[in-house]
Amino acid sequence: MYLVTVLGNLLIILAVISDSHLHTPMYFFLSNLSIVDICFISTTVPKMIVDHLTHSRVISYVGCLTQMTFFMIFICIDDMLLVVMAYDRFVAICHPLHYAVIMNPRLCALLLFLSIFVSLLDSQLHNLVALKITCFRHAEIANFFCHPSQVFSLSCSNMLIKTMVTYFGGTMFGFIPVLGILLSYYKIVSSILKIPSSGGRYKAFSTCSSHLSVVCLFYGTAIGTYIGSAESYSSSKGMVASLMYTAVTPMLNPFIYSLRNRDIINTLKRLHIWSI
User: Fold this and answer.
1) Among the listed residues 9, 2, 17, 15, the one whose alpha carbon sits nearest the alpha carbon of residue 36
2) CATH of 2-270, one of 1.20.1070.10, 3.40.50.2300, 3.40.50.2000, 1.10.150.120
3) The pTM is what?
């Protein structure tokens, strides 16, 4: 799964870089999403593979904080990019004549920078809370990586701040992004329904179907796992849900975006990769 994820996302990046026709805002964000997906899965799965091969389930305190830091950075960037891509589709379908003016290179770079900046701030906020934990009830995490909410649950003291940060993060990177995506797609669907021909409606919706599939897959497993408290946490169900959005979703993203995208398929064929 790890090798397929890395190879699939690298192919998308290669296709976007090598074809000038794909140098558009949509593919700019898609290539950055592929980069983040490679980094995202690399924060958890390689350690899990090593643990499985060595029959060891131990991670150092510093290693746990490091893994948690990069996990939060990349999952938040992934989250923000999905929102930005929803906005990009909204502008493309609802304001097609002004698309090139609105989604100019400067705005695209700014949206990417803001996504990274906000993600770094959220990661450091979680780190500050984790560093305030001086006493641990036990040293076992019911997961295959250092999930922030589960690290916080190890604290002996009932810190109010850890609860606030957990739900603040869930709101900032769960509720608000989902609300933004739903609002974008409400406007998109309203515009698509106004298109007179069925062929035109299908073509307009097909440009959003891949993104919508990834959004459903990502948010369907991530939100509940992050917000769920330790008291109601089921280790088996939690690990399955965590595996879905940390490994399965990054692996499926290249297939979802490439198999339903003629531009990427044609580029890979020109590079003599798709036929292989």
Assistant:
1) 9
2) 1.20.1070.10
3) 0.86
